[in-house]
Amino acid sequence: MGNLEELISILCCPETKESLVLADDDLIKKINAAIKKEQVKQRDGNVVMEIIDAGLIRKDGKYLYPVRREIPVMLVEESIDLGTVK
What we know:
The protein is α+β, with helices and mostly antiparallel strands. It has helices at residues 2-8, 25-36; strands spanning 20-22, 54-58, 63-68, 71-72, 80-81. The chain has one domain (2-84).
């Protein structure tokens, strides 16, 4: 994920303009386990159906922007509320 790490330095949250950090592997595993159980929702209320390869966490730690096939999905409505991940 070398390219992703380079992107992080220039990307920011499209909503608040806060900086982003790469989620650790344990959190990604936890989120993907919850996705498989259909327990993860996007901010628009839709259930996340596709596992993620990585994630970019907003500096305040509230939301994660999913990364699929090394492409960050930087849409506010598709971000994941980390407070709801069990």
